[in-house]
Amino acid sequence: MGLGKKAVFADQLALCHNEKGWFPTIQDALEGLGLDQAAWKDGSQHSIGELVTHLTYWNERHLNRFRGEAVDEHHGNESTFETAAAITSETQWRESVERLYEVLTDWKKQLLECEEAKLEEAIPGDPDSSWWELLSCLTSHNAYHLGQMILIRKQQGLWPKNINS
């Protein structure tokens, strides 16, 4: 018998976060990156710091919904990137990175502990979507922005040669 959906999505979250697979992880992309490097932008693209706050926002928001917790009103996607401007010290930057790691770890844990049937349930407030559909989009979204982080590091000349990508 094959893996259930919850195991597949837990694996996808872990592959983007910190488990080695076919592509580098978010942890690889953020390793050794300082605040100035994280804030660097080339034109109108988002910075790595903005991508971190954006990913944290969406992963945490959906995790809280999955747990049945209330979430604040959403104020537009662009606001999820703008919160990076409040990160002004190396300590705040490291805390921001650690927050993303915690959320991704918590997601994996929640998935592995939930009943398989939960992923078939409709999302409260969105009866046309199930949890597995949301997780499919969320894990793809994480991989998409991970690729952007790697590209930005390469543009900066900061991608380690010992990591395949």
Helix run count: 7
Q: What string gives the helices and strands in order?
A: HHHHHHEEH
End-to-end Cα distance, whole Å, is 32 Å
Oligomeric composition of the shown chains: single chain
* Low-pLDDT residue spans: none
Tell me the number of strands: 2
C-alpha geometry: globular
Write down the overall mean pLDDT.
Answer: 93
Radius of gyration: 16 Å
Overall number of structural domains? 1
SS-based structural class? mainly alpha
Can you identify the CATH superfamily?
dinb family like domain
The largest sheet has its strands arranged as 1-2
How much of the polypeptide forms β-strand, as a percent range? under 5%
Identify the CATH class.
Answer: Mainly Alpha
- CATH architecture field: Up-down Bundle
Largest sheet: 2 strands, antiparallel
Compile the SSE list and pairings.
Layout: H1 5-17, H2 26-30, H3 35-39, H4 48-66, H5 77-82, H6 90-113, E1 122-123, E2 126-130, H7 131-156
Antiparallel strand pairs: 1-2
Helix pairs in contact: 1-6, 1-7, 4-6, 4-7
What does this protein look like?
The chain has 165 residues and is mostly helical. It has a single domain, classed as Up-down Bundle (Four Helix Bundle (Hemerythrin (Met), subunit A)). 59% of the residues lie in helices and 4% in strands. It is built from seven helices and two strands, in the order H-H-H-H-H-H-E-E-H. It has helices at 5-17, 26-30, 35-39, 48-66, 77-82, 90-113, 131-156, and strands at residues 122-123, 126-130. Strands 1-2 form a two-stranded antiparallel ribbon. Helix 1 runs parallel beside helix 7 and helix 4 runs parallel beside helix 6. The model has no long low-confidence stretch (mean pLDDT 93).
